[in-house]
Amino acid sequence: MVAANPDLAATRPLAPAVLRGLAALLLFGVGAVHLYEYFADYYRVVPIIGDLFAANFASAVVLGLALIAPLGSLPLVRSLPLLGRAPHALVALGGIVFLLGTIIGLILSEQGTLFGFHEYGYRATVWLALALEAAAAVVLAAYLALEARRMRPSGTHH
Prior knowledge:
Blueprint: H1 6-11, H2 14-40, H3 49-68, H4 75-79, H5 81-85, H6 87-111, H7 124-151
């Protein structure tokens, strides 16, 4: 019985925090790769795509920071009915949508064109971005699963 073991029960709150921290690091990595490609791979000169790479960097950093910020202690956040109950869960959901959008954008630009741009071949940086994006999405999904279990009323057993 997990509940009977005080050592295991005490570590439960740690798991979501570790997942949030890991997801933040992965998001920072996603942002860093896109910033690198923006400058080193000259995406900054590609119309629309360059702006999307810069926005990807900024979005990844903001989402990562929001995951590690103490959102629940902010009075404004606490006062909002849904957001106050699970602010990091909503950030995690937004992160998954962001990451899937980034992956889909790459696939579209590889298979055809995206805003007139066609990506040719997967270089090491593209593979790295995909790996970080996929890993971050998986970690965020695991965090959401833990949060869903935590928020379920205690009388519900499935």
